[in-house]
Design a protein that fits this description.
single chain; mainly alpha; MetI-like fold; elongated
Length: 297
């Protein structure tokens, strides 16, 4: 029995050694039901946003005074709003604004935060000290308050809201990247690359950056959920997507006056925000486990 167990263990080790990191991460991710549910919902939301012109049953900005605040029916599955617009169509089109805000703002944060964190962590010294104080000052202010201030300064529009959210989320990625770089830069393979005469930029780009991507991917996934909430908040306050273009946040703003006699106006955009944020959080938690190098299963 002992020899058979040893042979089986050796066979499993051989298979694992031949498995690529991407396949290993995917195998681990598939074992987490919550993460797969989150991935399926995220894929559905992305498909819904991309295919909105073809799957939305009505024009999302077309008004009809004969259909003002109609309850859900066979003609309008989720009901209509205060000016007779179809809520289902507006929820579908609103997915474009929310997902675009999440993806673009996190892309801005990654594009600014990762290079700055890489420089601060690798070079250290006065560069690290200056960036550290700036990051500390930005993190001392609440995320949403800073985003509102920047959006108000730039002006009300979805594009400016994306920029405000992206800049506000940047310090988190700077600090995360810096911490990961400081751990990786003392590893033997980095010291070997330095010993053979590789320039600093090459060491940072070829030997350090690829090895710190997993935690950055996890943080980016979780940050998208926060960016969706931030975009909805800014649109609710009139600083994001501008009417009559649909946005889940602006739909909630319009619905607050009719909670008593037309609750469906608030239920569906609120549920859409809840489902989107929950799915990205579930996916992020699954990625954290799947990309963990200490995970053996």
């Amino acid at each position: 029995m002992t020899s058979q167990s040893a042979i089986a263990g050796a066979a499993v080790a051989t298979i694992d050694s031949r498995e690529t990191p991407a396949r290993r991460a995917w195998r681990r991710l598939r074992r987490r039901k919550g993460a797969m549910v989150g991935l399926a919902i995220v894929a559905t939301l992305i498909a819904m946003a991309v295919l909105a012109p073809w799957i939305a049953p009505y024009d999302p900005i077309k008004q009809s005074w004969l259909l003002v605040r109609k309850a859900p029916s066979l003609a309008h599955w989720l009901g209509t709003d205060e000016v007779g617009r179809d809520i289902l169509s507006r929820v579908i089109w609103g997915a474009r604004a929310s997902l675009s805000a999440g993806l673009v703002s996190v892309g801005i944060a990654l594009g600014i935060g990762v290079p700055l964190g890489l420089v601060a962590g690798y070079l250290g010294g006065w560069v690290d000290a200056v960036l550290g104080r700036v990051v500390d000052a930005m993190l001392a202010m609440p995320f949403l308050i800073l985003a509102i201030a920047l959006a108000a300064f730039l002006g009300p529009s979805l594009g400016n809201a994306m920029i405000a959210i992206g800049v506000t989320a940047t310090p988190v990625f700077i600090r995360l990247t810096r911490g990961q770089v400081m751990q990786v830069k003392v590893e033997d393979y980095v010291e070997a690359a330095r010993a053979v005469g590789n320039p600093r930029w090459r060491i940072a780009a070829r030997h350090i950056l690829p090895n710190i991507l997993p935690p950055l991917m996890v943080q980016a996934t979780l940050a998208i959920a926060g960016a969706i909430i931030a975009e909805a908040s800014l649109s609710f306050l009139g600083l994001g997507q501008q009417p009559p273009a649909p946005s889940w946040g602006s739909m909630l703003n319009s619905a607050q006056r009719f909670l008593g006699n037309a609750p469906w106006m608030a239920i569906w955009p609120g549920l859409a925000i809840f489902v989107a944020v929950l799915s990205f959080n579930l996916l992020g938690d699954g990625l954290r486990d799947a990309l963990d190098p200490k995970e053996t299963r």
